[in-house]
Amino acid sequence: MITIDVTGRAPMYEQICRGICGEIAKGVLKENDRIPAARVLAKELGINPNTVAKAYGILERDGIIYSVAGKGCFVAKHEGKADKRFTEGFEQKAREAYAAGVPRETLIEIVERVCAEGRQNGGGER
Amino acid sequence: MITIDVTGRAPMYEQICRGICGEIAKGVLKENDRIPAARVLAKELGINPNTVAKAYGILERDGIIYSVAGKGCFVAKHEGKADKRFTEGFEQKAREAYAAGVPRETLIEIVERVCAEGRQNGGGER
Amino acid sequence: MITIDVTGRAPMYEQICRGICGEIAKGVLKENDRIPAARVLAKELGINPNTVAKAYGILERDGIIYSVAGKGCFVAKHEGKADKRFTEGFEQKAREAYAAGVPRETLIEIVERVCAEGRQNGGGER
Amino acid sequence: MITIDVTGRAPMYEQICRGICGEIAKGVLKENDRIPAARVLAKELGINPNTVAKAYGILERDGIIYSVAGKGCFVAKHEGKADKRFTEGFEQKAREAYAAGVPRETLIEIVERVCAEGRQNGGGER
DNA sequence: GTGGTCTAGACCACG
DNA sequence: GTGGTCTAGACCACG
Fold first, then answer.
1. With a threshold of 0.70, does the pTM exceed it?
2. C1'-nearest nucleotide to the CA of A48
3. Most buried among A117, B105, C32, D87, using CB within 10 Å?
4. Domain boundaries, chain D
């Protein structure tokens, strides 16, 4: 359910964090749902277990998941923390673009286009 | 006119690129305008001249400025390339956020809020 | 009477130890009182009996309870050992905080606040 | 200036975090002061650089330090975050002890004793 | 089996 | 030189 882009400049562990957060934000993963064991996910993604462990450690510190010794990691109570990973980056870029002179209309147009494309691809109302 | 945030995770040279692009996008710097010599800008910012030189090299590679040996660097013909530095990052984040389940309405709200704040601070119509 | 927090970083067996010690310190459990059979408590808490057995083993080793083969476990003669489980951890943290520069007044304030809150919730004079 | 207790149950990276936070809380390290390079501190402590890097990564995520590429790590603007590492653990233990029946007077006595001892050892008024 | 910690060693970007 | 990332492999506590 999570995909990694080794090409990109974003570190793998952050991509994993965003992947998990995305599943939570979309409602695929719900409170107290178990997320894949670090070693299992690492094998699926073809990467080192430590990298997944690092991602899980960050998610736990951020209060997005909690770990139970010997049992695994589980989705914590959802308080919008998972969404922040996406809205904060978006807001930051919006601020930069607006400050650089990109007009409000252009930003809105981009959002509309992205959402329209997403609706075609992903399907389903939102 | 350009400020550098050493705290941030964005490398200085990229901040310089965005700074120059912003001045162009806002119309402060126009076609064939001379941009500050690398050493001068470096001194102003209190950073290593090599870092500014690197930024200028990238801007030239991207066709945003052109350099004339012994004369300096100048703003190239504006074809929206400078804006792309901001709109591309913005679009990328919008795509990520929407794919992660952030609803269209939330994205629009964020844009509106950012623009409203910017209008208060920066002043002037756009 | 004992509750387990699977979320926390404290292992379950230690939480059980503290739970039993708390009941003794508060006087709910008195000398020679029988404590619940490991299997019974395990069922109540919904955890593995081995975990409870491990806790009881530690409490016995610490001289807080004693076990009679075929009869069960009982509260040993109270010599302040049960309280130590709490005062030692508290003293350790107090020492760390003071050494780190937290002023005496702040520590006192925290204690007063915690006790005030506890009095409201738990009720009863102490 | 930081010491590590390999014996203890507290992970080394957390001891390093507390060590740095303590220096900040005590005022030894001030805003924008540079903290030792990860590799240097690792060598001093006789441990692996990765362990120190982990600690620094956590401190940066917690907003206690900030890192500058190629320059090092520096103390961030002090907003009481460093102190929290100590007061939170202390308050948690105070709450546990009080709930377990340790009377307010005993807790106060412990604090007073710890502070009195610290004053003798460390010297200096606080 | 599970997560947590640590070591050893490598490579990278930045400056 | 500095921090950041990742791999490989090990050992541990918990249950």
1. yes
2. F7
3. D87
4. 12-79, 89-120
